[in-house]
Design goal:
globular
Amino acid sequence: MSDHNGGVNHGSVNTGWAPVAVANAPVSYGAFELTVGTDPGVPDGESVLSQVAAAGYAGIDLGPVGYLGRGDELGQALARHRLGLAGAYVELPYSESFAGFACGAPCACATADDAIAALAAAEQVTAAIPEMAAT
């Protein structure tokens, strides 16, 4: 179905149109748990944030734990680049023994804590900058 303006309506009951925000991820730049810190061709987190923002994306995935920063540092970096937090993942060592798998649990909690702190810090920084608070 199409509306009178040529937009696509996918049959939802809601007749209003919602804006769509598109995000990117560090993996698009070659940054993932096997390359960060080992492959010299992988850009650093600050460079990826700059490139994602310059390309016009609205947000970014966290990528490997700590790659874009942690806690308040991460929130400030996101706010500085005017990027939202789109998602996160935690790399778990599936190929290792079950005992090794258990080590992923603290990492998952640390990632969740980083994401929560980053969102809070980004909100504080965004509110403190008038032109960002208006968007």
